[in-house]
Write a structure and sequence with these properties.
Helix content is about 35%, strand content about 20%. The protein is an alpha/beta fold.
Length: about 240
Amino acid sequence: MTDAMREREREREQKSSHLDNKGKKNYLQTNYAHKKFSNQYDFKLIRYILELGEINSGENVLDLGCGTGSFKSVFEASNFTYYGVDIDNNDELNNIQKCDMASQSLPFEDNSYDLIFFKMVIEHLTIKEISNCLSEAIRVLKPKGNLIVITPDWKWTYKFFYEEYTHQTPFTSSSLTSALKMAQFEVKYCQTLIQLPIIWKFPFLKVIANVACMLYPMTHKKNKFIKFSQERALLAIANKP
C-alpha cells in the first residue's frame, strides 16, 4: 500500500469514527463538535448559579447529557469532582460514561452525588423520558443535594424553539416547576435567565434588554446583547428532600 493510499484510508477511518452505526452523524458530532472546551461565559454562569442557589463547592457533580464534557474544567475550578453521562460519549479519562438516560438507569449507586447539572437537555426528551430521567436523578442524588436545570424558556423562544430538529418538550416556569415537583424535588428557584453576565451584575439593565426584544427581530443575531436578550432560558434550582 502506497503512502497516498494509507493517507486515504486514515481519512476514511477518521470520517467513519464520526458516524453512528447507520452511517449518520449523531447529535453530539453534528451540533457540539466545536464545543470541546469551556469559555469565560461558562465559568461566570456556574459561579452565578452556585451563589444564587447558595450551593457549596468542593463536592462531586454529575453532568447529565454532558456532551463533550466542556464543563469539566469549570466545575473543577470550583473544587468539584466531575462526572458526566451522555448518549454519544464515552471518555473514561474524563469520567464520562455512555448512557441513554432517557430510557436506561444511570450507572451509579443511590445517593451518590451532591450536585446534578442538567443544561439544555430536558427539552430534547419526551414526557415519559423526562419522568425516567428525573426519577433517576433524584435516586442518585444525595439527600439535600441540588439539581440545576437550564432549558429554553418557551415564553421567549416559542417562535424558533422547533427550529432545533431534536427539540420535543418546551417548558415554562410553571410546567418545569410541576415536572420537578412530580419527581419529588423541592423547587427553590425557577425563573427566566437572561444569558448575559452583565445583567446578573447590573439587574437594572434588564430594562434595556426588554427594549432590545421589541425593537429588533430574531434575525438580528450578530449583536450578542440583542441575541441573548431574546433567546432567554429557564433556570431551576431544586433539591432532594
